[in-house]
UniProtKB/TrEMBL annotation:
It comes from Sesamum radiatum (Black benniseed). Keywords: Endonuclease, Hydrolase, Metal-binding, Nuclease, Nucleotidyltransferase, Protease, RNA-directed DNA polymerase, Transferase, Zinc, Zinc-finger. PROSITE patterns: RT_POL, ZF_CCHC. SMART domains: ZnF_C2HC. Residues 191-206 form the CCHC-type domain. GO terms for biological process: proteolysis. The keyword Zinc-finger applies. This is Transposon Ty3-G Gag-Pol polyprotein. PANTHER family: LDOC1 RELATED, RNA-DIRECTED DNA POLYMERASE HOMOLOG. Residues 510-655 form the Reverse transcriptase domain. SUPFAM superfamilies: Acid proteases, DNA/RNA polymerases, Retrovirus zinc finger-like domains.
């Protein structure tokens, strides 16, 4: 019950919570039967602020714990930043209350200066300070500076007075804070339909209506890519937006938005990167990872269709030829854990080799930890690559070169093992069970000459039985209940392949003398059962005969008792009798009861066949009489399996 209600405490780290979770999970195995159940229980107990950051359902427990730890570190870092901001605001408030004069507020907006409550010293724009910083008689101890908002041009901003506890309202998110805004509205929205900025795909003005008309002018917009020193041309028509060119050397993608007079100006080109760890990549169906050659240098690559650009780690650039070139603009790369990184250099003309074909690629230089290279949509689109995330394959086909297929790493599926009791319980609940025989087709059986000791007695190990075995002390008998009439069953239907095998085996048995044609009133159908080596074993369906047969009560040994005798043994030889049942003759009076019916005739056995109810007991009695002298010394016998065991190789050879 404690495990089902387990949650992460307010003062408990993810590592401490994971230790407690693992300790209690041992006492509730039914609650964490599968890895998915274990991950679900663990995730539900996390604190809300950590669980909220795990947007993707993770089914690998180790990956889930690592992701939760990283999210916990991000939450702690965010709290520290918030505390620092609050302390700064409190310190400024205390400073304003300590001044004897000059408690006014000063603002600067759109280039105009306003002052209230006393004189202030104002500049044009940008962070600048004026006025004395200390206290002096007859002067106003106050200085002011300007905080430019995100996306604004030079000469526009908000000025803040140190002599006041007032924090200005952000024009982007509406909240009071200093510095650059990182709120959700500060990141411009990108349309997945047209690539423009300032709107999303459902509001895209270039989207063709389903009814087939033209887009109304009031909803129209245009997007433009600004170049150095040039602004986007204002679109015609009412309601069209206008883009702006790049400024201060930063690459700008300007996109008009709905309404007149709207202006979008981003100081940097933005890119997305959905990077992940080496452990997460093989398990993810969204990306492909593996090893490629970059200028004949092995590099661990992540092929990520969700990344807009291709990247190379700054560490790998020192190992390959070439020099870094300036990108020409600042590229803001947004990371999945939040925040962004500005990069401005590129390694142009890098050569990626897959198989015998090389592909050029421009790689943006960036500090990468988990991967050496990330190939994004720019490279995939350039070479018209087809990505199969399910098979973890990338196919590149062109008239310039033969078809190339890159096969990435695949997650190794763990072997799922359950106990016999669990399997029985699942079958009782209605689950289907299948019995499968696995055969190693490449395994080569050793020859007689390669086996020590055995090779000294080749006459004991013939390739096949030479003929009928001799009559022994006791032959196999079939005693039926008094007054039972002969039983005859029609042959079973067989496939053509089985009929061919049946005809072949009947001819072999006739040739060896194990069966003979019969006129018996008894008759049983035949069927085939697969052996361990894949061959077919001919079995007779004697179930009707077994129902009227008096059972032999000869005891079969317990496996546990046999294994107890192996204590201290180190050397073993296993002997499996060849056609063991056929080494026991049937009493002459009971031969007609073994008759079986086939499409090719009526036959009866002269040796003990498979399928008779008393066959195991009769054969066990024969083996015990044969090995009675050596039992419990160095031989174990179970029906037709013989195990010779010794404490040393010398003792084994002497036996």
């Amino acid at each position: 019950m404690e495990f089902l209600n387990l949650v992460q405490g307010d003062n408990q780290t993810v590592a401490e919570y994971e230790l407690r979770f693992a300790a209690l999970a041992k006492y509730a195995p039914e609650a964490v039967v599968t890895p998915e159940d274990r991950c679900y229980r663990f995730e539900q107990g996390l604190r809300p602020e950590i669980k909220k950051g795990l947007a993707v359902r993770i089914t690998n427990f180790k990956t889930l714990v690592e992701s939760a730890v990283r999210m916990e570190e991000a939450v702690i870092e965010e709290k520290k930043k918030g505390e620092e901001k609050r302390k700064l605001a409190y310190t400024m408030g205390e400073s304003s209350r300590s001044t004897k004069r000059g408690t006014g507020r000063s603002f600067s907006a759109g280039g105009g200066n306003f002052s209230r409550g006393g004189p202030a010293f104002w500049g044009n724009s940008g962070p600048r300070f004026s006025g004395p910083m200390g206290f002096s008689r007859g002067s106003i101890e106050r200085s002011s500076f300007t905080v430019p908002p995100v996306g604004s041009g030079r000469g526009a901003g908000q000025s803040y007075s140190r002599g006041s506890a007032f924090t200005p309202n952000c024009s982007t998110c509406g909240r009071r804070h200093l510095g650059q805004c990182w709120g959700p509205d500060a990141i411009p929205r990108v349309c997945y339909n047209c690539g423009g900025r300032g709107h999303i795909s459902r509001d895209c003005p270039s989207q063709t209506p389903s009814s087939g008309g033209s887009v109304s002018r009031g909803a129209a917009s245009q997007s433009s890519i600004g170049s150095s020193g040039r602004g986007a041309e204002r679109g015609r028509g009412r309601g069209r937006g206008r883009g702006t060119g790049n400024r201060d050397g930063d690459h700008t993608i300007g996109g008009g938005i709905r309404g007149s007079g709207a202006q979008v100006n981003q100081g940097q080109t933005q890119a997305r990167i959905y990077n992940m760890t080496r452990e997460e990549a093989p398990a993810s169906n969204d990306v492909i990872s593996g090893t490629i050659l970059l200028f004949d240098v092995e590099a661990y690559v992540l092929i990520d269709p969700g990344s807009t650009h291709s990247y190379i780690s700054s560490e790998l650039t020192s190992k390959i030829p070439g020099e870094n070139s300036p990108l020409g603009y600042n590229l803001m790369v947004y990371l999945p854990m939040g925040g962004g990184v500005v990069v401005n250099s590129v390694r142009k003309g890098s050569l990626v080799r897959i198989g015998d074909v090389t592909f050029p690629v421009d790689l943006v230089v960036m500090d990468l930890k988990e991967f050496d290279v990330i190939l994004g949509m720019d490279w995939l689109a350039q070479h018209r690559a087809v990505v199969d995330c399910y098979k973890k394959e990338v196919m590149i086909e062109s008239s310039d070169h033969p078809k190339v297929v890159f096969v990435g790493e695949r997650q190794v599926v763990p072997v799922c093992v359950i106990s016999a009791m669990e399997a029985r319980q699942l079958m009782l609940e209605g689950c289907e069970a299948y019995l499968a025989h696995v055969i190693d087709a490449e395994k080569v059986n050793p020859t007689l000459e390669e086996i020590p000791v055995v090779r000294d007695f080749p006459e004991v190990f013939p390739n096949d039985l030479p003929g009928l075995p001799p009559h022994r002390e006791v032959d196999f008998t079939i005693e039926t209940f008094p007054g039972v009439a002969p039983i005859s069953i029609a042959p079973y239907r067989m496939a053509p392949v089985e009929l061919q095998e049946l005809k072949k085996q009947i001819e072999e048995l006739l040739e060896k003398g194990f069966i003979r044609p019969s006129t018996s009133p008894w008759g049983a159908p035949v069927l085939f059962v697969k052996k361990k080596d894949g061959s077919m074993r001919l079995c007779i369906d004697y179930r009707q005969l077994n129902r009227v047969t008096v059972k032999n009560k000869y005891p079969l040994p317990r496996i546990d008792d046999l294994l107890d005798q192996l204590k201290g043994a180190t050397t073993f030889s296993k002997i499996d009798l060849r056609s063991g049942y056929w080494q026991l003759r049937i009493a002459e009076k009971d031969i007609p009861k073994t008759a079986f019916r086939t499409r090719y005739g009526h036959y009866e056995f002269l040796v003990m066949p498979f399928g008779l109810t008393n066959a195991p007991a009769a054969f066990m009695a024969l083996m015990n009489r044969t090995f009675h002298k050596y039992l419990d010394q160095f031989v174990i016998v179970f029906i037709d399996d013989i195990l010779v065991y010794s404490r040393s190789m010398e003792e084994h050879e002497a036996s």
